[in-house]
Amino acid sequence: MIKKPVHDYSELSRGVAQAHALWTPEDGTEAEFQAFVSENLCTTDSARRELFESLSRIFENCYEAADKLNVELLRPTQLTNAAEPQTSDWIMSAYNPLAHFSDDMFANKLAFLTIINFPHYTLEEKNDLGRNWTREEWAMARMGDIFTTRVPAKVTQQMAQAYADAENYIAGYNIHMDALRTNDDRQLWHSNKVLLSHWNLRDELKALYADKDGQEKQEMIYQVMQRIVRQEIPQAAISYGEYIWKPYEQYTETEPFTRYERILDVAHAYFAEDPYFPAAPNAIIRNFEEGVEISAAELDSLFRALIGSPQVKKVADIIRERLGRDLRPYDIWFDGFKARASLNEDELTAQTRQLYPNAQAFAKDMPRLLEQMGFSKQDAADIASHIVVEPARGSGHAWPCLGRDEDARLRTRIPENGMDYKGYNIAVHEFGHCVEQVLDMYRIDHYMLSGVPNTAYTEASAFIFQQRDLQLLPKSQITNVKSQMTNDKWQMANDEVLDQFWSMYEIMGVSLVDMAMWQWIYAHPKANAKELCAAVISIAQAVWNKYYEPVLGEHDCVLLAIYSHMVNAPMYLPNYPLGHIVQYQLEEHLAQFDTPAAFAAEYERIYRLGRLTPKIWMQQAVGANPSVTPILKVVDEITRR
Ligand SMILES: [Zn+2]
After folding, report:
1. What gap in Å lies between CA 79 and CA 37, rounded to an integer?
2. Residue 31 contacts by C-beta under 8 Å, 6 or more apart in sequence?
3. pLDDT tens, position by position, 197-208
4. Cβ(563)–Cβ(231) under 8 Å?
5. What is the whole-number distance in angstroms between the Cα of residue 462 and the centre of ligand 1?
6. How far apart are CA 613 and CA 187, in angstroms?
7. Which tens digits make up the pLDDT trace of 288-328?
């Protein structure tokens, strides 16, 4: 049998051309470049393989060592079982050991050695050629993604500054609710509630669904939000409590389009970066095709398929019935789907507090949780041995391992009197991240393929675990495994599905506005903040009028442009709905495996696919491209009943 070569040597010039494009006079003369190439270009499979193994070890060592240092330096500021953070700790918490890694690797020419032998492939090529690649070819292609650009420090600094300014602007944008008045001078909030835009404003609006007289306040928050988008808040009222104002009245002394100034600063930093990315010449391509690895156009049509579906109106009918009134635009944040209404949360909290008085107790219980998911005793013990549980200062999170001599870190916040049910639910979510991280690091065939395609794919794993939190409590010991896996208990409660569907409907519209704004910015590179504001308003109105007005009313509503992410996390929003899309596809597929052992084996097979592109991963996981069909099907079944 003839062995297929791992590399098409007619393509040798590809890597050389890519390296040549990045070679500067400081690196050497043209003759020196040619000499470097003839000395270092592998011309046989075995030489190339040896180099690949050696580089893989080098990258694993560098990334892992840097991460371990990071973890240690961040201990005081991130964990409660560490020293009280000092000024020095805060300084080092912003330190990035890998900040100059790329520069160093170009300077010592390891980057050029990598590029000439392991060229970069575009997303389109990966999705096309990658269908027939071996695992090794995939891993080699991933190596080709490491050094694709050399951005000068000055440009990187401009970017960091623009991000920091945007972050500070958002962090300082508070609305003092007790300073608000109705047009007839009534004060609706009496305590000095200070709400950060948009998160706290949205959460207050959501919480008001539980208050039977809450609608007048909801209307006022809605009014404030629209004024924020339009930049019509009186300047004196921003983060200042003494200035009394009426959201229904038009003011003239407003802020000078600062929200859009901050976005433009980021845009200008992107423009400065653009020339250094010949293969991805704008930030939209870099974010979607190189970051998320699904093109903006594809996400756009995925989202429109859901928000334009007939299911939306059916779910809206249910909401209208529950509210007993016509729907309003802010009902995109309807919070009345009582997920798991039958739960007695106090009882559950009593149980979780007793089970998990501290982080160690949760750590000790991890093998049992995994066994309950269907992993063998041996696998459960092995996976759990690579996860440490640590008490977080801030919110719970999972910190991935970057090498096979490092643990995945499950960070959770446990109060003095033990873990309450909500904390347990979040801990199980983070546990789902950690299990994914262990499987696709410790059980992966090539280090270069460790990880998942993008953040949405690790979220899907976290959701899969989180959904099963009740079944993982020891009380519900599985006696008849088969029926437990297939009966309703293993499935999400209907209201929980509807809740997620409705929040996808909301965040997909918000994402479309964010994405369309960046298209507009690149089409109008000379625009000023006032023009950008006008453009965002008309973009938000267009999305609203097409997909939301028919369901929620109000022509030309601008609510979809309120998210702060649009300012401080450009183009990040689409990751949220993508996580749910992936989750439902996996759930639908995994439901065919009707014993816990078969379920766990399939879950592991899928998460050991590693960092393929999102499409190829999905094709190999469930036999289909990313799609909203599974969630639409579930919602259709529920609304039919
Ligand atoms: Zn998560």
Report:
1. 48
2. none
3. 999 999 999 999
4. no
5. 6
6. 53
7. 999 999 999 999 999 999 999 999 999 999 999 999 999 99
- Kindly list the distances between the CA atom of residue 7 and the CA atoms of 77, 132, 206, 302, 492, in Å, as whole numbers in the listed order: 47, 13, 56, 35, 47
pLDDT over 70 (residue 341): no
Structure confidence at residue 8 as a pLDDT band (50, 70, 90): low
How many Å lie between the centroid of ligand 1 and the Cα of residue 398?
A: 8
* Tokens linked to 470: 């009740």
Q: Closest Cα partner for 570 from 514, 527, 629?
A: 514
Distance from C-alpha of 119 to C-alpha of 103, rounded to nearest angstrom: 19
Q: Tell me how far the alpha carbon of residue 374 lies from the centroid of ligand 1, in angstroms.
A: 22
User: pLDDT digit string (tens) for 401-427?
Assistant: 999 999 999 998 888 899 999 899 999
Neighbours of ion ligand 1 (CB under 5 A): 459, 462
Q: 115-144 pLDDT, tens per residue? A: 999 999 999 999 999 999 999 999 999 999
Q: Which two tokens stand for residue 128?
A: 């096309």
- Whether the CB-CB separation of 587 and 490 falls below 8 Å is answered with no
Percentage helix, strand, coil for the chain under 3-state DSSP, each rounded to 5: 65, 5, 30
Going from the Cα of 459 to the center of ligand 1, the distance in angstroms, rounded, reads: 5
**pLDDT average, residue stretch 375-389:** 98
pLDDT digits (tens, 9 = 90+) for 527-539: 999 999 999 999 9
**Contact between residue 460 and residue 631 where contact means Cβ atoms under 8 Å apart:** no
Q: Which two tokens stand for residue 197?
A: 């835009």
Centroid of ligand 1 to alpha carbon of 68 (angstroms): 21
- The interaxial angle of helices 529-547 and 494-523, nearest 10 deg, is 140
Distance separating alpha carbons of residues 95 and 91, to the nearest angstrom: 7
| DSSP H/E element including 398 | strand 397-399
3-state secondary structure of 504: helix
Cα-to-centroid distance, 496 and ligand 1 (Å): 17
What per-residue confidence (pLDDT) applies to 339? 61
Torsions phi, psi for 383 (to 5 deg)? -60, -45
Alpha helices in 477-622 (DSSP H): 481-486, 494-523, 529-547, 549-552, 565-568, 575-590, 596-607, 614-622
- The Cβ of residue 541 has, within 10 Å, a number of other Cβ atoms equal to 19
Q: Residue 2 has what pLDDT?
A: 43
CB 463 within 8 A of CB 429: yes
Could you give the CA distance from residue 256 to residue 565 in angstroms, rounded to a whole number?
20
| Helix H or strand E segment including 389 | strand 387-391
Of 152, 144, 143, 119, nearest in space to 24 by CA? 152
Task: Look up tokens 């080699």; give the residue.
Answer: 140
